[in-house]
Amino acid sequence: MIYALLLIFSLFVSGCSQEETEPSKAPPTKKTGAPETYSCAGCHQHSLDLPHRRLSCTACHGGNSPSHSAEEAHEDLISQPSHPDHMGQSCSPCHDTAIEQSRFSLHFTLKNKINIIRQAFGGEELQSLIDIPSQQQPETISELSDDLLRRRCLRCHVYYEGEPYSGVLHGSGCASCHLIYDDGELQSHSFVKSPPDSQCLHCHYGNFVGADYHGRYEHDYHWDYRTPYLKDGTSSRPYGIEYHQLTPDVHQRAGLACIDCHSGNELMTGDRSHRVTCRSCHQDLQTNLELNLPDNITRESSRLILTTRLDTRKIEIPPLQHPAHEQYGEHVQCQVCHAQWAYTDKGTHLLRQDEEDYDPFAALSVQGSFEVEVEVETSLYGDESYPYPWMADKITGETPRGLWFQGFELRRWEFPIICKGENDILHICRPILDIFLTYTDEEEEVIIDASPPPNAPPKGLMPYIPHTTGKAGAFYRQRLKENNTLLDDPPFLEKVPQKTGNP
After folding, report:
1. What is the rounded CA–CA span in Å between residue 468 and residue 248?
2. Where is the signal peptide (predicted)?
C-alpha cells in the first residue's frame, strides 16, 4: 500500500516538472540580489573625442554614476560644465592656462562692443558684459542703453545659448565654439579643436561681420519684402530672418575658413599683437623681407603658401604688386578699394514698450528676435496672450517687463561709406551709432524720447572692416577721388596703370 502511494506521488511530481518547463506557463519570479543601477552611458548615448573619452562623465558634469535611481544620478549635476560660471571647476583641471586666458578675450567679455554703445550714451567703460548694470526702470538715456544691451543686443555671447533658431542655437562657454551644433541640436559630444565656419555663424549672423564673409545681407523686416514666398506660406529662416545672397568674400570662395586668418591665440587669449593683416599675408617677397607670418603660412622660394586649417589644402598667396599699394598703402585701409559691398543700415530705431499694444507690429513681428516674433504673433493670432510684454535678460535669464522692438530708416549694401579714422587714414565706415532710443511705460507715456547718442560721431559713422574682399577693379579710383584730401598729387590717380589679377 505504501509502495503504491509513493508511485502515484512520483508520477504527480514528474507531471508538474514537465509543465514548468513550458515558458508560457512559468510562474512569475521575483528578482533577488543588488537593486538596479543606472549609469550616464546607459541613458545618454554620446560619442566623445579621445582625450575626453578617458574621463568619466562625472569628472565634468558632477552627479553620481553608477547610482540606484535617476534622481540620485542627477544630484549636484552640472548640465553645462563649460559655461563661464562652471568652467573653472570643470575645465581648469586640464586646461588651466587656456581657461584663465580666455576670460579676458573679446569673445568672453565683448568689451569693445558694449563700450561703443555705453560710452556713446554717456556710460563709463566696463571690462565685461557681466558688469553692465541691470536697469529694469530706466530714468536716463544711459540707463536705457544698458537695458537695451542686456535684453536686446546681447543675444549672442558665451553666457547664453542664443536664440532658438536652427542656425543660431549653440553651447555656452568653451562649447560655444568647440561643440558642433547643427539644425538647432547638439550633433556630437566630441570637442573639435578647429571649429568650422558654421560654428562662427551661430553668433556672427545678421548684418554683422562674419555673415558678409559668406555674402549674406538680411531682408527688410516688413513681410512684404521677405521673399521668396513659398506655397506652404513658410520659409527657411535659420538665422531668424531671410537674407539676400550677395557675393561672398574672395577668401571664402578660395576655401579659407574664418580660423585661417583668426587664430586660436587671437580668439581665445585676447592677444591681438600678432593679428593677421592684409599686408602680413600679401607680402611682396622680392622687396619686403618682413616675414612675421601666421603659423599656417610658409615661405617656399619666392612664394607664400597658406595651409588651410580644416582640410590642409595648399593655397598660394598673391603678393601686392599694383603701384597704388605703394602710393597709398600708408594712408588708405585696404577695404576702401577692395570691399565689394558693405553694411550701411541707417537710422536704427529701438523702442522699449511696456504697454500691451502689438497691432503696429503685425507686419514686423519677424525681426531677428525670437521673443518678439513669438510674443507678437501669440498675442495677435493665438488663443492666449502673455500676461505682460517681456523680454529676457540675456545674462541672468530674468524676465522683467518691457519688449524691445527694432526698425530702420534705410537698409542698403551698395556704395560703401568712406570716412577718416585715426591718423587721418581712410576707412570703410558704417553708421553703427546712428541710433535712436525710445521708452514708453505701461500707461503709454513717453518716458525717454528718441535721441541720437550724445557722444556719437557725426551721423554715427565708425570705421569697420567689411569681410567682402574682391578685386578693386575700376571703382577704386572713384572712391579715392571722393576723398582726395589726403592725396598730395591728385592727378596721380590718372597715372596709376590698371593691372589685372591684383589682389
Report:
1. 6
2. 1-19
pLDDT-flagged residues of the chain (< 70): 1-35, 229-230, 233-235, 270, 272-274, 284-292, 474, 482-503
Q: Tens digit of pLDDT for each residue in 211-247?
A: 999 999 999 999 998 877 667 766 679 999 999 999 9
User: Domain of 64?
Assistant: 46-93
Helix (H, G, I), strand (E, B) or coil at 303: strand
Other CB atoms within 10 Å distance of the CB of residue 64:
18
- Say yes or no: 73 and 194 in one domain: no
Alpha helix ranges (H) inside 254-404:
258-261, 264-269, 278-281, 323-328, 335-338, 370-381
- Residues 105 and 179 grouped into a single domain: yes
Q: Which residue has the cell 576707412?
A: 427
Evaluate whether 340 touches 470 at the Cβ level (below 8 Å). yes
Backbone phi and psi for residue 330, each to the nearest 5 degrees, phi listed first: -85, -10
What DSSP state is assigned to residue 149? Answer: I
Residues 6+ apart with CB under 8 A from 493: 477, 480, 481, 484, 487
* Of 214, 457, 416, 216, nearest in space to 333 by CA: 416
Give the contacts of 94 (CB within 8 A, at least 6 positions apart): 51
Query: Distance between CA 141 and CA 450 in Å, rounded?
Result: 9
Residue 17 and residue 44 in contact, taking contact as beta carbons nearer than 8 Å = no
Q: Do 289 and 208 belong to one domain? A: no
pTM of the model: 0.86
**What's the CA angle centered on 239, arms 225 and 275, to 5 degrees?**
120
**Residue that terminates a domain, selected from 236, 253, 270:** 253
Residue 158, all three cell numbers = 558665451
